[in-house]
Amino acid sequence: MNKEVEKVWEKCLTIIKDNLLHEQLFKTWFLPIKALSLENNVLTLQVPTHFFCEYLEEHYLDLLIKTLRRVIGQNACLQYTILVDTSIKDNPISTVLPSTSGKLTKNNKPVHAPFPIPTHSNEGYQNPFTIPGIQKITIPSNLNENYSFENFVEGDCNRLLRSAGYAIAKKPGLTSFNPLFIYSAVGLGKTHLANAIGLETKKNFPNSTVLYISAEQFMQQFIESVNNQDVNQFLLFYQMVDVLIIDDIQFFIGKKGTEDIFFNIFNSLHNKRKQIIVTSDRSPADLNLTDRVVSRLKWGLSDELKIPDVATRIAIIKQKIRQDGISMPEDVIEYLAYHINTNLRDLSGALISLIAQSSLNHKDITLALARQIIDSIVKNVRQEVTIDYIQKTVCDYFHVDVNKISTASRKSEIVRVRHISMYLASKFTKHSLATIGAKCGNRDHSSVIHACKQVNNLASIDRKYKMCLEDIEKELSKL
Ligand code: ADP
Ligand code: MG
Prior knowledge:
Shape: elongated
CATH architecture of the largest domain: 3-Layer(aba) Sandwich
Radius of gyration: 31 Å
Number of strands: 11
Number of helices: 18
Helix content: 40-55%
Number of domains: 4
Bound molecules: adenosine-5'-diphosphate, magnesium ion
C-alpha cells in the first residue's frame, strides 16, 4: 500500500468510525478491509469475500460514498477486489467488482470453475452475476420435466400460488412474489409447482440460470465446501443463479451453519432482484428458524397448497391418465377421487397400482376391479367417509345432480337430498355442524339441526323413507 492511499484510507476510517453506532460494527466490517490503490479518484478496497462486498453495499454504501467524496472529492469512485481462496492456497485469485456507485473496470484473472460441477459454455446470455473475469458457466437446472404447468391442474386449492407462479415465470425476481414461499402437508404439489415455475421460466428465458435443489442437497454441498475449504466458491456459485428453488426448507431447522449461509445467499440474490422460491411442510411462522430468516421468508408471497376438492381430484386423475395414454371409465375415476382424499401422492399411487394390475392380468379397468384392488390401499389411507362422498351417494341414490345440493333451490327432491346429506354427515363424520352446513349449500348450523330433526321424524312415520335411508347407510358402510 503506498503512502498516499494509506493516508486517504485512514482519514476515511476515522470518519466512518465516528458515524457508526457501535465499535464492534467498525471492527467487523471495516478493519478487515485493505485499501490497495488510489488511481484517478478510483479507490480500490480489498475485501475478504464476495458476501462481505455485498454486505457493505447493502448497509454502508451511503456512508462510504459520503466519506469518499469528503476525502477524495466529488468524482470519487469505489471498487472492490475480492480474495477468493482456491485450492492453490499460496496463489489467491482476486477479482475486481465495481461498487454499484462506481464504474466498470478491467477484467481480472479468470476464476476457476465454481461450485459444484458446472459445464462450461462461452456463448449466450450474459449473466449479471458473472464476476468480471469469471467464465460463463451453464448450470444444469435439475428440473423434473414431468412437473410442468401443463400437468399441474388448477383448482381452488392452488389458484393463488399457481397464478403467482405464472407471473414469476414472466418476470422472475421483478414481481412482489419474491420470495415465493409454498407450504403444505406432504403430497399436495409443492415440488411439482416449484418445478413448474422453473420450467416455465426456462421456456420464457432460455438463457437464464434456474436451479432446483432440495434443502438436503444444499446442506450436503455446503458441508462439502466447508470440508474442502472452498466456502467462497460455494457462495460464488449460488450468487450466479437467477432463479433459486430450494425444496423442503424445513430441513434447515437446527442446522445453524447451513441456515446462515442460506441467509447470506438469500440477501445477495434478493438485493440483485433474483428470484427465490422456497417450499416447506409448514408456514414461515411455524418454521423454527432464526427470526431474521423467517422475516425474510415473509417478504414476498407465502401461501398454502390445500387438499384439492373432489372436482379437482377428478381433473387430476383425468390429466394423469391422459398423460399416460390410458382410458378409464368415469365411475372408476369417481371412485378413486371420492375415496382417496388424503393427498395426491396416495391418489397417484392408487392409480398406478390399478393400471399395473389391470395390464398384468389383462383385465379391463372396471369398478369391480378398482374396488377389489384399491380397497386395501383405500383402507390404509382413508380416515373417514367424507361429506362429499355422502352427498354423492345420496344424490346417486335419488338420481339428483350433486351440484344441486349447494344451490338455493327449495324443490322437494333437492331439499330431501340436502337434508339426508346433512343428517348422514353429522352421523358419520366428525365435522362440526357449521362445516356440514357450509358444505351443504352454505347453510348455518341451525339448518343442520333442523334437517336432522326432519329426517328422524320422516323415518319414524314413513317406512319407504326409512328403507331408503338404510340402503344409503349400507352403501356408505361398504367403505
Ligand atoms: P409435495 O412436494 O407437496 O409432497 P408433490 O409435488 O411431490 O407433493 O406431488 C405429489 C404428486 O401429486 C405428484 O405426482 C404430482 O405430480 C401430483 N400433483 C400435485 N399437485 C398436482 C396438480 N395440481 N395437478 C396434477 N398433479 C398434481
Ligand atoms: Mg416435495
